[in-house]
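The material for today's practical consists of a large collection of protein records. Backbone structure tokens are a discrete shorthand for how the chain folds in space. An example says more than a description, so a record of this kind follows:
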Amino acid sequence: MTTTTTAEPRFGFVILHYLVDEETVKCVESIRRHCAQADGRYTIVIVDNDSANGSYERLLRRYGQDGDVVLLHNDANEGFARGNNRGYGYCRTQLGCDYIVTLNNDVVLADDGLMRRAVADYAATGCAVIGPDIISGKDGGHQNPMSAVVDSPQQIRALRKHIRRNLLLLRTHLYGVFERLKGGAGRGHDADGATPSTQEHAGQRACVPVKLHGSCLIFTPAFLEAFEEPFDPGTFLYMEEDILVLRCRRQGLTLYYDPRIVVRHAEDASTEAQVNHDPRRKQINYLRHHRDSLRVVERYV
């Protein structure tokens, strides 16, 4: 499929900010550095999710007079989906962007080719969402493409059972004991004990993936035409990637993974700040949000 676009499409970069302004500054400056040749064809929209630590005010002082940056402030912490939806809506309706990139604030661009390659990918495939090669700052692993999506009642039931068990173990301070008794048998689950690992690196092969990691997503004109919001507003955190796949399937839209576009993801900077680096509290929050997001997934299955 070949799709034509305007000669000089406009990009909007939505950065969801919460608490950690040092990471947000790195993200902004990486966009400026790697899109320096774009000749003003992009705008950076920072959405603050009601940070109460002075970080929004510091960003406002730093970027408030800059023509390439817009700062939006939410009166409450709206979570991942609704926070990003606000920035996406501003880019789509107020700025008239053709492409919208949503990034966690702890993501930085690593090459100059994002805008050019995204336009080329859309022209060649007509895809709705593009995912880059996302390199983890924790272990150097590649977070795209992801290899599984929750899309059946059986998977939902199994995941609910798993979450209930782990929440009970964490609340009774028995999770560590249980893991030691298993002797490592549970290593098919991620570090937060919630869901089986779904990450797989496809090397240098571009492909139509099962699922894309939500820390950096590029929405093309096909998606902007179909959806007023990129994420179902019913979630607060987690499983947005699964729901995005299911929404695109309903509309007959495709996702695309392009390893030539590279970003680096420090991972969980805002989450760690929110729970004061408390692993047990982080695990409990992670599981609770997964449990709540499952109710939204269920509507699409």
